[in-house]
Amino acid sequence: MKNNILLALFLFGSLCTLQAQETPAKAVELSEVSIVKVKKAVEQKADRTIFDFASQPSLNTGSVLDGIKKLPGLLASDVAGMMYQGKQLDVYLDGRPLNITTNELNSFLEGMPANAIEKIEIITQPGAEFPATSGGAIMNIITNVNAKKYLSATFTNSTNITNYDHLRWRVNNSLLLSARNKYFGWQLNLGQSYSESALWTSLTKNENNVTTLVSATDADRIGRTNFVKSALTFDIGKDRLLLNYDLNYSNNNSVTTSNGPGFNTDDDSYTDALRQDFVVTYQKKFDDRSKKLEFKFNYNDNKNDFLLDSRINNTNVLNNESNQQLFNAKIDYSQPINFSDEGKLSFGGLYEGLFFETQNRNVVNLDYQRRTAAAYSELQTKFSNFNFIVGARAEDYDISGKTNTTDLIPFKQFRFFPNASAQYNFSNSVYFNVNYNKKISLPSTSALNPNNTNYQNPNVDFSGNPNLQPTIFDNYEVKLSAFDYAFIGYNVSSAQNQVVNRVLLTNDVVINTNVNVPQIKVHNFNIGMPVPYMLFTKGLKETMKMNVNPDTMNFLYVYTAYQYHQIPDIKTNGFWMLNLMSQLLLPKDIKFVANFTYMFPKGNYFYFIVDKPMRNSLDLTFSKKFFKDQLSVSLSASDIFNSNRTVVSSYNTPLLLSSKYDSRRFGFSINYKIPTKNKLAKEGPSLLNKEKKEEEGNLNQ
After folding, report:
1. Which of 222, 230, 471, 675 is the most core-located residue (most Cβ within 10 A)?
2. Torsion angle of alpha carbons 260, 261, 266, 268, nearest 10°?
3. What pTM was computed for the model?
4. 616: buried, middle or exposed (CB in 10 Å: 19+, 13-18, 0-12)?
5. What gap in Å lies between CA 686 and CA 673, rounded to an integer?
6. 578 Cβ contact list (under 8 Å, min separation 6)
7. In a 3-state reduction of DSSP, which class is residue 443?
8. Per-residue model confidence as pLDDT tens digits over 4-55
């Protein structure tokens, strides 16, 4: 292990020395087209990592959830949520929190085509401008595309099949239309997803060296999702008004059979979910373009209905509903400061209200309200090779509610959340960063929901916990980065009242719920390293003479991380995660990408002990562009060895949980930019945004 770490550090140092070999790009004057930069597949910044989805067929050939699971350092679990480099993720869509987690989140992302995504930002160090409720980190899924001064249209399709007990199809389609004139711009993105999938699970109990079955299930699922994303932008003098309306409707059903000691079931389940989101943004413009003033109002409505019917008894088993309404109003202002290079002062405020109601057979069994008022200020400065960020955010919470039997434990507190970051730039492409921030995570409404919105049988019960309390995080991180792709870092997140998933056994009934743990620390050490294949064929000396651009060369990207969950009074073990991504440029401009992920067993993931390797999968993608890059075609094979499964035991119980879904898939994807006769419609790849906030030209804010 020591030799492996030394080799990784040597390669990291070799890449750093390549800075001297960079050659400035030559400016080219074109008659009708502005100079275009090449989009980066991965971009490292001081506070975030940006993954480009639009130009990577290995990520955008299936659903958004499929692509997310391939990101190095990200762990997505059906029972424990999402973590990135040891940090619990709060998921945003186009800069706005989704306010859903776990099963609802997975279903939402599974129904969204990955080829409708432009990029994903994982903000590992959210500053004061982000809500303190962002917790450990933020995953911002960005679907918006800049409107052009002409009509542009792009059609995308992704089709996959699996063949286990029978053939199953997954089909995603989307159409993006956008245009702009001297009065206004508009954008319309609509699509649908149809997904057939299978899930096999088993729960066994091992006591006194005797293994007995608790429950075994076989689920045949169909998911249907339709979505519309629309945007209008109006120029009012120098100012700008933006209107966004998003609609997402899913209609899912499942046929599930199960068996266990003394029972057999055959059930139908139905889930209807309707999510609507409306945003009004007014941007005040100044002669100094680095000065910004923005007002924003957001309203979100999320309805979810779940039914479970027994086919054997022809009776209704579960009839649960929920309705969540959220609104917030915020103001953000920033201006440059004169006493430092590239300095900026930002401040703003937010007022937010959330109302959540659940019903069981038309009887209200949870009425939950949350009100948040916040203000922040942040200062960014640069002196010579140093960058500094110092900020603070104050938030006031008033949380209350009641079930059908009792009042919830109220949470009425005023909290102060500081953040600080210091970065030393060795060069334009190599920097060292240290960071600290304090955050809070409020329990998600899906974790609070006392109703079961999952399948259940006589031996398995899913339920939320209305009395969950907020989690307070202290996050620390150090990182050394080079050329956006290579980095080595360590972070620790210390959490009070951490919300975790627990699977317990009571009277031979498995209870799946969420609880608060007084104190948990998550340590994460990680290394990311691109290794050019020419290093082995031409040697280090010749490699150092080449311009380093991993997007246009054959290379192997190695990511490895060691994660350790420290829980008081419990002996826990850490675990290693490995991700290998190989890119080969084949003849005829065919690009081949192989992606291998592996999570080593015997470590603790909170209260779960990994019994067998997790995320054990090899995915292959071949892609090529035709007709002057207007048509992109890719062929993909996911989990070709059919080895991706989850087998974990639950701490302090005799339970072993095993699940397997139809992960071995084969398919294709196309992306077609419909031609236009307008000469101005010659498009180059869009640039990844360089600022912390999205560029002002975007429609979705």
Report:
1. 471
2. -60
3. 0.76
4. buried
5. 14
6. 559, 560, 596, 597, 598, 599, 600
7. coil
8. 444 444 444 444 443 433 334 444 443 333 334 445 677 766 677 788 877 6
